[in-house]
Amino acid sequence: MNFNQLLNLSYEWRKQYGLFENTETLRIFYDPDTIAIDLFQNHAWITQWGNLKANILPDSVAFLRELAPWGKQLDSIVLMDRSTVASEKEVQTLWGTPPETKFSVHENGIPYLIELNKGKHPGLFLDHEPLRNWLKNSQKNKRVLNLFSYTGSLSVAAGKGGADHVTTLDLSKSTIEWADANWKNAELDSTKARFIYGDVFEWLPKFIKKNEQYDTILCDPPSFSRSKNGVFSTNKDSQRLHELILPLLNKNGVLVTSINSENYPESSFLRDIHQAAEKTGAYLQVLKRIDLPEGFATSTRNLGERYLKGFHLVRIK
Length: 317
Ligand SMILES: C[S@@+](CC[C@H](N)C(=O)[O-])C[C@H]1O[C@@H](n2cnc3c(N)ncnc32)[C@H](O)[C@@H]1O
Known about the structure:
By secondary structure, this protein is an alpha/beta fold. Helices cover about 30% and strands about 30% of the residues. Bound molecules: S-adenosylmethionine (SAM).
């Protein structure tokens, strides 16, 4: 079977999950040894993970140029080559012309601003679609805190779900501006939102000091980051992070905490959360696990490929 046929079969199988009314995003292929292909409306974003056999990119372009996922053929195909640190600095256009500025794509009827011609990522992580969908259906009258927000897609979903107020916090200035633009683009009320450019480890103690309380806290850190306050890594700092989060969570409030890391096992993650709860006098119960969306099939070789781990936890005490 050639690569083109493999993509075709993958597409045929996945489209039953993703291509439905009100949604213009779809992951059509994922293989950690080669590439991932995501559709954003009539544009394709290819992520390359390693050195590829010569035919793989030309086959992918040929396959994508035949597609008309929403009744219209694709306008552009871009590549983010993550095989080396140098190559992932810039996105390359493989075909067509990607829009020059940010534009809206809909997922479950909600618009999100994405950008294809610069940056390392379009700005919408498709693997968090189930979490956005949960927020859209569960946040009526809730006070929400979105930590490590990136472009604020989880905040927008919570806002559309009727949240009373959403605080959005990220260490990157351009990203928090994007989150603010995302909120406005979704026609949400600016008086119900606060956008903070800053370090979680600097702001959480301030929130605790002011006795802030939230019904929903979202925590989705990177596996590693550096700020002027030092280096953060999930393996080392998860317990400390959760010790700062739990005092802010209301009784009956829900913490959704996740990590995207292959080398931090789920059992260690849960142990760190449990210890943080013991230390802060909170009593948490697991409501459910976070997992990849239904259409995100992964290999049978290694469960680690289901890289997204996390929990919905309710605070009983
Ligand atoms: C994995 S992304 C979060 C994705 C986001 N939850 C979403 O669904 O789109 C991690 C984000 O954490 C931010 N970040 C890293 N270290 C931080 C820190 N110490 N304080 C606040 N934000 C931080 C990064 O700038 C990045 O936007």
